[in-house]
Amino acid sequence: MSYQAPIKDMLFVLNELANLQQVSQLPGCEDATVDTVEAVLEENAKFCGEVVAPLNHPSDKEPSFWHDGQVTTSAGFKVAFQAFGESGWQGVQHPQEFGGQGLPKLVATPCTEMLNAASISFALVALLTDGAIEALLTAGSDEQKALYLEPLITGKWTGTMNLTEPQAGSDLAAVRTRAVPQGDGTYKIFGTKIFITYGEHDMAENIIHLVLARTPDAPPGVKGISLFIVPKFLINEDGTPGARNDAHCVSIEHKLGIKASPTAVLQFGDNGGAIGTLVGEENRGLEYMFIMMNAARFGVGMQGIGLAERAYQQAVAFAKDRIQSRDLAGSSGPVAIINHPDVRRMLMSMRAQTEAARALAYVGAGISDIAHYHADEATRKANLAVYEYLVPVIKGWSTEMSENVARDGVQVHGGMGFIEETGAAQHYRDAKILTIYEGTTAIQANDLVGRKTVRDGGAVAKSIIAQVRATEAALAEVQGADFAAIRAQLALGSAALEEVVDFVVANVKSDIKGVFAGSVLYLKLAGIVLGGWQMARAALVAQQKLDAGQGDASFLRAKIATARFFADHILSGAGGLRSAIVDGSAGVLALDIEQF
Amino acid sequence: MSYQAPIKDMLFVLNELANLQQVSQLPGCEDATVDTVEAVLEENAKFCGEVVAPLNHPSDKEPSFWHDGQVTTSAGFKVAFQAFGESGWQGVQHPQEFGGQGLPKLVATPCTEMLNAASISFALVALLTDGAIEALLTAGSDEQKALYLEPLITGKWTGTMNLTEPQAGSDLAAVRTRAVPQGDGTYKIFGTKIFITYGEHDMAENIIHLVLARTPDAPPGVKGISLFIVPKFLINEDGTPGARNDAHCVSIEHKLGIKASPTAVLQFGDNGGAIGTLVGEENRGLEYMFIMMNAARFGVGMQGIGLAERAYQQAVAFAKDRIQSRDLAGSSGPVAIINHPDVRRMLMSMRAQTEAARALAYVGAGISDIAHYHADEATRKANLAVYEYLVPVIKGWSTEMSENVARDGVQVHGGMGFIEETGAAQHYRDAKILTIYEGTTAIQANDLVGRKTVRDGGAVAKSIIAQVRATEAALAEVQGADFAAIRAQLALGSAALEEVVDFVVANVKSDIKGVFAGSVLYLKLAGIVLGGWQMARAALVAQQKLDAGQGDASFLRAKIATARFFADHILSGAGGLRSAIVDGSAGVLALDIEQF
Known about the structure:
2 copies of one chain form a homodimer. Chain A has helices at 7-17, 20-23, 34-52, 56-61, 77-86, 105-118, 120-139, 142-153, 285-321, 341-373, 377-413, 424-431, 441-454, 459-476, 481-507, 512-516, 519-547, 553-570, 574-583, 585-589, and strands spanning 65-67, 70-72, 157-162, 178-181, 186-197, 206-213, 226-231, 233-235, 241-244, 247-252, 263-268, 274-279. By secondary structure, chain A is an alpha+beta fold. Chain A has 3 domains: 7-153, Acyl-CoA dehydrogenase/oxidase, N-terminal domain (Butyryl-Coa Dehydrogenase, subunit A, domain 1, Orthogonal Bundle), CATH 1.10.540; 157-283, Butyryl-CoA Dehydrogenase, subunit A, domain 2 (Beta Barrel), CATH 2.40.110; 442-587. The longest helix of chain A has 37 residues, at 285-321. Chain A is globular, with a radius of gyration of 24 Å. Chains A and B meet through helix 9, helix 10, helix 11, helix 12 and helix 13 of A and helix 9, helix 10, helix 11, helix 12 and helix 13 of B.
């Protein structure tokens, strides 16, 4: 159950597909040279593999526990998080002026993947802290930035996102938590928040809660929500943690997975009011929270990819080790089960989906960097639109695929996979949260349909499809059955995606429920077509390098074979998804509620 | 989390699709009149819903535990199993001469579904006992039958299957357990068996282990395996349990799911030898064990269907109850989430797959009854061949679909689904064993390809496809978009299945690994096409009844809509599976082992 970061594949994707070269020439990204990035990745891989990965299974068996308002995290978490902060890993993508490394998102992304492959439960504290940092960087006052950013970026403190309330679930319009102005610039916060990841723990000296609440005169619904900083310990003049604030953890949840990560119920203001300060302007809280959420959504996509890689590695190791039954083609005795074709099929499926999702996410990260750092505003804007189209796909598809991969990981282990000691089952349990939190797949799909497709009449989607078509043309120039198969399936996939985009745009007004009945299927279709596109691009690069006698031939040939597998086994599902979206809404919506 | 048996759908399937009328006219099945069957189902539904279903979630939280060789099962299990036996539910399909009810498999099948929907962990003791009964009925001596059958059939004792050993997994050729003849007709058994479901428990006064072992002169491999009865307590002259046998439970497993069902490691013969008697002839153990396994495989398919139904009911109840966010088409406030199209899509997918798998399994049970009871040998033989083709599909596909359904069940619950108290997560955990035990899906698929397709050159498969085509012709006679859509997808599906059968038969000799690389996909394709066929048949019947003004119009319309959903959303995947099977083996097999 060890974890070896797939540095070779990561560097291949960064350099050959995600334009690291171009990103490193952007203003502010000059430190991200190919050599530096390789060194950062290797150092991070060492930390994640040696310090964090060994904690993953033991911390599942001995999860965080609550006693009398305090949460004790699993053995090793506190020390590992201290090392994480001190080594600068919380700060990879954050500004140097606040103690970060100031590297582009494209470099932080493989680091995020590695940390999550090592332990999703552990990585969550960093993910939430990243979100708090992003929100403060965007909307915090200079004073707030000076007070909070450096301790968060250096891992001395951690951050949380407080959205959900018992009666509200994902529906933020229903938020009831109150914020009462005290006349001195502070507010008193009263309310209950649930599902607060790392809402209480013992790994850092302070916890900075970012809390959605309503001021007394706020309009109803999502337009009346403001964002507040509510630290667990109020901050002294000298920046050190002082008096305990009135924000308390009353319980943590008993969950299916990510058990080491404490999921808190937080009670604000039961003893007079929790003191908070407003972030930005009143009633703009949702907007700021979306900054955290968008960063976190991409991050959850990376959790899916990290988990999938870990499950894949574990399944491969088991399949090479486990001797059972003879080879179908004949053998003198039983062989390692990796020789059995269906085991091989599952491993290839795990591998192909993980590589495709990784490539798509890293490409997205590179586009995000261009959208942030490029000198030209029009270029920034165009790239931002593409990135924003990709975020729900990266979150939704990478996490949905991680469930399938974790499932296959158990299946490869057979009966041993069902025994908790083996560790494969933990991935299956952990994966299930990824399609739910930071917005379920359906919420990602609503975003993809509404804000990302309908709003611009499908323009960005079509611009991406045009790029897929260019890759198809390039595939036609290469000889061989692999490339013919990849091209054929990619062409079917892009045609299906284009038809679906047209269907969505054309029908959303006349038949909104019919269109949204297929929203998740559209997200999945976009995932496999865009993931398949990246695999096709990867195969083209691999063939060029092989032709030129460059690089590791075994790695490059495996990349082509994996792209071929993805085309025949994953992309081949595009037609069925197209049918279900375009023809399938009648069946979805036919029953009256009483008929269920 | 209550469970209401879907009696209406069960009776519809029994009467309209699975030929209960015809089965009840078979010699020996005369008791199974429509009225009797309805009464049996209602009584069973009451027992399962009121006595067993309430135990499911508590027993997951407080599972069976081992102490000093004894296993204490979860609260309520012992009393419920006593009631189960006394009410005659263990004996539904077993001979009246040994205390059973002597009803056909077609009637026992919905009872099995209900018990498993109520609690898979509980139902397993009955499933394993059924297997032991089947093996003894087929291969036991008269003395053994007289000694063991009545207590097993009346639920006083329970049975186990002892196949797996630590070093062997699913590979029975590697079985090492030894059986040493004592010259008095008994054998002493020495060895270790693992993964023994209900290998030790406190719910019955004796446990009858059926154990695979090798006699001293046995040939190597699967041809040298014999089957032995090894009771936990030796049987006194008067048939009561006597001295403790040397078969002891040394531990039970800590599992992902079905936690209330104890999975034992059994040690035979550590204190001088466990006394056993041979079943049937030496070296024919595997053959007898296959009798148990085939019955058990069908039973595990029913576990998948029962679990899917339970998960569906729970998701529907939550979706009707949970109020969140406005309706897409506009509403004055938040609405129940069942109104949101993607929730509706997931519920329909859960429902459609469950109904299709139920219909296919019940139809299979009816065919099995004809194969057993029909007066004409040729008819028996023909039906047996069809049943044997269906068994791996019913086991493999019903359980694979149950994983998807349980997954969607959690997803419908959103964040609440990830909290163990909600109960949805238990189904997700429990489901994962079903595709593994009694032969993984890959093992079912090997059976489907090898013994069930290649051996007869695809003849049985083609005969079934011909029946599907007859249904397609009938669909063409009915007006309306629903029937056009169902027919279109069924035609694509049956064409894909036929092409795959031809591919398998044509290529298995020249490219055995290439064919087996697609074996699981072939099984899934057969599942969706044959499940879709049953849904199409159901829709035809429903329309006839609606036209004739018979029956419950709401139920019948829902059946047509559900069949339409199945066609557009599930059957539409047939083309992708076809591609992956026929074109996809290159990608599966391209990598060298070192490249993983």
